[in-house]
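Co-fold these.
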Amino acid sequence: MREHVMRCKDHGRWPVPNSYARHVPRHGIQGSFWEDRLDRRHCGVDIYAPAGSSVLAIERGEVVSTGIATSPAQRHYWNVTYHVTVLHDSGFAVRYAELEDFMVPENARVAAGETLGHVGRVIDPLRVTRDDPPYVQRLSVSTPSMLHVEVHDRCADPEKERRYSGGNWFSNERPPWLVDPTPLLMRLAPGDNPAR
Ligand SMILES: [Zn+2]
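Predicted complex below.
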């Protein structure tokens, strides 16, 4: 069933043309889906790119929500970043997150390849302290900018979930609505992601 909802109706676009690479991180390494960050799990896949790079819709669909993805009110070491969540016509919802801005309003129809917003930077190194989690301290050195891609079963609303925050899940028990984006992203860049 999950395999069914993950297939794009058209060819599908890689969401960040300007990304440093189109290689999708394999499970277990930094930026991969469900990466174990000790106090939290990663709900999406990170695509690294220069801050300000355009983020495109991978397929046509409807913008179902926009808003804050991270903020210092949630975690003191986070910058304000935004998300755009698109319910794609194939039936899966993609949360494009950690954006520095967004360009489309809620309820808008978007075309495949349409610009949704721009890549942002989540960690503010000046607000990271020695008491913060090790993975946050590592990021405070490199402060990477990235797109966080998260895929949901169509009706999910992570903002209502107590254990969800900023693209992380603060438990080891994976929520049933959270879909692994790895196969979808690999299909969007097949030359860089040969079959395992
Ligand atoms: Zn992420």
